[in-house]
Amino acid sequence: MSFADFFARARTEAARYGPDPWIFVRELLQNARDAGATRVDLDIELGPDFTRLRCADDGEGMSFEHARAYLFSLYASSKESDAGSVGKFGVGFWSVLRFEPARIWIRSRARGHEAWEIELAADAAHAQKRKPALARGTEVILERASRDIEAQRRLLDAVRQNARFLRQRDADKPLAVHVGGIAQNADFDLPPPVAHFRSREGRGVVALGASPRVELFSKGLRVRAASCLEDLLSDERASSNVRVRFPSVDGIMAPQVLLESDGIEPLLSRSDARDDAQLRRLVTRAQSQLRRLVRRQLDSLSPPGIFERIRELFRGFSEAPLWAQVSGAAVFGALIAVVLAPLLWPMLRPPELDPVVQLRPAPAGVAAYRDLSRDYHGPAVSELDPSRAMRLDLRYAPTED
Asked: Do the bridges between strand 213-218 and strand 254-260 make them parallel or antiparallel, or are there none, so unpaired?
C-alpha cells in the first residue's frame, strides 16, 4: 500500500468516530493510559498561519519496530490480549486526521531502544525519519495550516468531557492530565443533593439538578453520554418499564448520573458501549438509587406518615439483591424474637417446683441442732399406732363459783 493510499484509508476509518472533530483527544489520552503513563501534557501553539497541538506522555514509549508493526498498520493492535487496555482495534490513533493536520510528528522512545521521530505530511510522497533527543515516552504534534483562536477552548472541552476521571493503568490513581500546565482531573462526584453507590458491576453517582445528564465511563474514559438512563440500553431490548419517571419540582429534579465500570465493553468507535447483562444491572442499580434520592427530596418537602414510611421500607427491601434480602430477613427475625421472648416466656416455661430447703451449719458460737425428743416427758404418741394415740379432752366446764 502506498503512502497516499494508507492516508486515504486512515481518513475513512477516522470518519467512523462520529461528528466530533476533537474526538482524537480522547484517543491520544487513551493510548497514553494504556502505555502506563502517569502524566499527560497537552498544549496549543498559535502561529500567524498555523495551529499546533502537542500531546506528550511519560508512558512506556514505543520502539520504531513496534510502531511500524502496529501504529502504521491499520487494524493491527498490540493490546488485543491486554485486559487492562481500552484500545484494542488498531485504528484509534488515526482519528487525529479529524483535526485535518497538514503535518504530523510522532516521537517516541522505549526503554532499551533509541528515540525516533517520524514526520508525515499530507502532500508528501513518503515519511521522514529522524533521531531526536527524547526521554522515555511518546510525543505527538499535529499542525493545521490555519490559525484557530478557539483551539485552546475546544481542547479544554474535549479533555474535560472525556477524561476528567481518567485513571492510571496499573494503579487506582488519577492519570494527571494537564492542558497548558493546568491540571484537569476531577473527583467522581456531582453537586448535592447526591447519592453514591458501588456494586460488582461498577460505581455510580446520582444527583438532581437543573438539566438531565447521564454519562457512562470505562476505565475513566467516557464512552457514552445521554439525557436519561434508558438511552444507555439498545432500543430492541428496552421495555416500557425501563424509563424512570420523576415528579417535577420547579426545575431542580432533573436526574444526573455518572456511571463507571471496568467491565463495560466499548464498541469500535468507543462512542458507545455494548448492551450486555453487566451494563443493564448497572443501569438498574442507578435507577433504584435515583428513586430513593427523589423520594428523600420529596419527603423533605412533605414528611410522610408512618404507613408511607413502612411501605417505602418494604419497597426498598424488595429491590435489594437476594443476599441482602436473606440477611435482612434473618436480622428482622432475630429482632422479633428478642422483642417477643419476654412476653411469651411466662406462657411457655414449665411450672415451678417447691423450693428445696437447704440446711446450713449453725454459725460460730451457736449450739448445733440436736434431737429434742430426749427432753420430752409428755404422753407417748404414735401416728402409726392407734392405741397410742393421744386422747385429749378439749371440753371446758366452768366452775359454779
From this structure: parallel
SS (H, E, C) the chain: CCHHHHHHHHHHHHHHHCCCCCCHHHHHHHHHHHCCCCEEEEEEEECCCCEEEEEEECCCCCCHHHHHHHHCCCCCCCCCCCCCCCCCCCCHHHHHHHHCCCEEEEEEECCCCCCEEEEEECCCCCCEEECCCCCCEEEEEEEECCCCCCHHHHHHHHHHHHHCCCECCCCCCECEEEECCEECCCCCCCCCCEEEEEECCEEEEEEEECCCEEEEEECCEEEEEECCHHHHCCCCCCCCCCCCCCCCCCCCCEEEEEEECCCCCECCCCCCECCCHHHHHHHHHHHHHHHHHHHHHHHHHCCCCHHHHHHHHHHHHHHCCHHHHHHHHHHHHHHHHHHHHHHHHHHHCCCCCCCCCCCCCCCCCCCCCCCHHHHCCCCCCCCCCHHHCCCCCCCCCCCCC
pTM of the model: 0.67
- Comparing 43 with 319, the larger pLDDT belongs to 43
**Rounded-to-integer distance, Cα 335 and Cα 49, Å:** 77
pLDDT of residue 148: 95
pLDDT tens by residue, 142-191: 999 999 999 999 999 999 998 899 999 988 899 999 999 999 999 999 99
User: Is the torsion defined by CA of 141, 142, 147, 151 positive or negative?
Assistant: negative
Indicate the average pLDDT of the chain.
79
Rounded (5°) CA angle 287-293-294? 90
Q: What is the mean pLDDT of residues 23-45?
A: 94
Comparison of pLDDT for 391 and 72, the residue scoring more: 72
Amino acid in the structure at residue 24: F
The mean pLDDT of 83-89, rounded to a whole number, is: 43
